[in-house]
Amino acid sequence: MKYRSLLRVTALQMVLVFVLFFVVPVEAWERGGGGRGGGYSREGQARGGGFSSGRESSSGSRSKEYSQSERGGSRQGEGERSSSNEGQRSASNEGQHSTSNERQQGSSNEGERGTSTQNQAQRQQSMQNETNTRQQGANERTNADQQGANSRQQSRQSSGQNAQQSYQKNEQNEQQSRQNAAQNAQQSYQKNEQNEQQSRQNFANNYANTYGSAGANGAWNGGSSPGTWGGYYAGMATAGAAGLAMGATVASLPAQSTPIAVQGNPYYYSGGVYYAPQGNGYAVVPPPKGAVIPSVPESSTTVYGAGKSYAYSNGVFYETADQGYKIVQPSVGVLVTSIPKGAATVTVNGANYFEFGGTWYRPFYSGSDVVYQTVPNPTG
Question: Are 231 and 341 in contact (CB under 8 A)?
Fold first, then answer.
């Protein structure tokens, strides 16, 4: 606005200078008139280039003075015109300079505005590019996250399916293994039952052939080694033998039973009582000759004869062995103070003998007490 106001003022000055430049010469021409030959006249035109006056009072000198005055005025007018022209030229130059400056300033402003607009556009484009870059990055991250989520979901599904298939396969294998194990166990059990039944049958046959069988009165006699065992357990003062009789059967063995074997036949010993497998249970049997037990019954005593010593308990003789005590047949001449009440009485040639467990005894007095000495079988 400042430059525009200056431009208006300069333009008005220029207009005034031009008006003055054209008006002043015209007035000078009108006031002086013109004579021929270039002179001036107050009354009119002078001839021959002189001055004419109606009063005739003017002289050549006055004319000369007037001419000089005119020339001075002319020079003054020229000076004024020169000054006017210089003013006009100065004003014009100043106007032009002002206009040029204003134009330059306007151009500069317009350039600055153009540059500012260009910079604004560049900034907007840069911001748009940055926004597009951020949006593209966000889209890429979103796509990557989605792909990662899909991949993880697929991995979880695959892992779940694999785990399910593996679990089902393992279940099938375990089921098959259980079935195979059950079948094998059943077959093994049946086979063992058959073997045990056969073993019990063989044992029964061998035992009957060796010891005979229980008689009507509970005596065990007959067989290849005849012997009477009736009342054997009744005469034993042990808790394990209480209430038991020869030939009795039980469904199961006592908790603390020692397995023993005689000539390949199985037996079990517990608390002074001997058991042998029979059917689905176990039968109470006499002490098998040749069996080795870890310890002798508490009621046993030491007896002597024929240069030997034995542990004796209720008609059974034991001698020491590598792993305990072995049931044996005693030598002839061993003295004992008592025999089981179930011993059988046999009279041979008027003499009385007693037999128990295949061992023969002959009673006689030792002082006022009756003692029994082992003797050979009197029946031959």
Answer: yes
Tokens of 355: 């037999």
Give the integer Cα–Cα distance in Å for 96 and 209.
161
Among 348, 207, 363, residue whose Cα is nearest residue 286? 207
Token pair for residue 145?
A: 């996250």
pLDDT at residue 209, as a whole number: 52
> What is the rounded distance in angstroms from the CA atom of residue 310 to the CA atom of residue 329?
10
Q: How far is 310 from 315, CA to CA, in rounded Å?
A: 12
Q: Which residue carries 């505005």 as its tokens?
A: 113
Q: CA 119, CA 376: separation in Å to the nearest integer?
A: 143
Write out the two tokens for 231: 């009342």
CA 142 to chain CA mean position, Å: 27
> What are the angstrom distances between the C-alpha of 204 and each of 200, 209, 212?
6, 8, 10
User: 239-266: per-residue pLDDT in tens?
Assistant: 455 557 778 888 999 888 899 988 888 9
Distance CA 283, CA 292 (A): 19
Burial class, 152, CB count within 10 angstroms (exposed 0-12 / middle 13-18 / buried 19+): exposed
How far apart (Å, rounded) are the C-alpha atoms in residues 99 and 314? 159
| Segment 146-201, tens digit of pLDDT | 998 998 998 888 888 898 898 999 899 999 989 899 989 888 888 877 776 666 56
Distance CA 260, CA 275 (A): 10
Residue 117 near residue 57, CB atoms below 8 Å:
no
